[in-house]
Design a protein that fits this description.
The protein is mostly beta strands. It has a single domain, classed as Jelly Rolls. Strands 2, 4, 5, 10, 12, 14, 17, 18, 19, 20 and 24 form an eleven-stranded mixed sheet that branches. Strands 1, 3, 6, 7, 8, 9 and 11 form a seven-stranded antiparallel sheet that branches. Strands 13-21-15-16 form a four-stranded antiparallel sheet. The N and C termini lie far apart (about 70 Å). The relative contact order is 0.19.
């Protein structure tokens, strides 16, 4: 019995030593690993013609991106035709395929400053701290699918760790953009994916026909490996506010925030970093569109846009990203307002 305990202790110790420091809590940040930090920092004019792409970086593996920031000389007023694509391990399909500004939470290229554990925007600096492991390589691309050519001074930086341990890591970050303009049958789908992994959160923006300060209600529903479960009894609960504040004041905190409430447009984020939604076969994430508790919207449906972030084994394919013209189309919700 004692011998088995000693062997177990040795195995546990070795396992802990193999965990990268950045994956540990602050109390474990002292732990030395076999990884070596590398960085890519650039500042120059970047020109991308309509329909063309520009490679920001092609990083050799095995490794893990630990930090990514980007800015241009529009000072936070991003051109809406820019799309961020990230390809893992020479995959032909991008696992991250979203509008550049939206990736950082500046949906529709409208910048609002906030701070969270995973992402933040400070003035005109757009930053991501989501870890992104890869084995062979990581290729980060800007594409222009807009109506005009793009040419601005860009600064960006990428920190990553190189280490042999990442050669065996199967998890890859994914992100996709979805819009329901308007929501149909009172239900917006945030994510619908097959495979094995975990959902870690994202952004929600609602343009509402409800002219009141608060746009409405809606449960968040996770269908994990075919089993549906209600995660929270209302949008305000899911995004970290709870109960009705007379003014619905904006806020930004580590794991949740309501960072915009302006002329019927509400923007929120929620990170499931300590409680990721894990699945072995499939996951569907949906949110109800209600203006009153228990009453799905029908003729007065709102406009929902979401960016979902999740990890899964291998470089999976995301849903097709609509064209820039579709992404920036006027909201149906602004065409007919109703009072509370």
């Amino acid at each position: 019995m004692w011998a088995r305990l000693v062997v177990f202790g040795i195995c546990l110790s070795l396992a802990l030593e193999s965990i990268p420091a950045s994956a540990q809590s602050i109390s474990e940040i002292y732990r030395v690993t076999d990884a070596v930090t590398r960085t890519r920092s650039e500042f120059h004019q970047v020109s991308i013609s309509r329909g063309q792409e520009y490679t920001l970086a092609d990083l050799p593996g095995p490794g893990k991106i630990t930090y990514f920031y980007i800015t241009d000389d529009t000072v936070g007023r991003w051109y809406e035709g820019l799309v961020l694509k990230i390809f893992w391990d020479d995959a032909t399909n991008a696992s991250v395929n979203v509008p550049l500004a939206d990736f950082f939470g500046a949906l529709g290229s409208k910048t609002v400053e906030y701070q969270s554990a995973a992402m933040q925007i400070n003035h005109a600096c757009f930053m991501s701290y989501l870890p992104m492991p890869f084995s062979a390589n990581a290729r980060i691309v800007l594409a222009n699918d807009g109506s005009r050519d793009y040419s601005q001074k860009i600064a960006y930086g990428i920190d990553w760790e190189k280490g042999l341990a990442y050669a065996q890591e199967k998890s890859r970050l994914h992100a996709e953009w979805r819009r329901s303009n308007p929501v149909e049958k009172g239900l917006h789908t945030i994510l619908d994916v097959q495979g094995r992994g975990q959902y870690v959160g994202g952004f929600l923006q609602v343009t509402s026909r409800n002219s009141g300060i608060w746009f409405g209600e809606g449960d968040t529903v996770f269908t994990v490996d075919g089993e549906a479960m209600t995660h929270s009894p209302g949008t305000e609960d899911e995004y970290g506010s709870c109960w009705k504040d007379p003014h619905w004041r904006t806020f930004s905190h580590l794991y949740s925030g309501h960072i915009l409430n302006e002329k019927g447009v509400n923007r929120m984020y929620r990170w499931y970093l300590t409680n990721p939604v894990r699945f072995q076969h499939s996951l569907k994430v949906q949110i109800q569109n209600q203006h009153d508790n228990g009453t799905p919207t029908t003729t007065d449906a709102d406009d929902y846009t979401t960016i979902a972030f999740w990890y899964q084994e291998g470089a999976g394919q995301t849903v097709s990203l609509p064209s820039s013209a579709v992404r920036t189309a006027p909201s149906f919700s602004t065409q007919s307002k109703k009072t509370e």
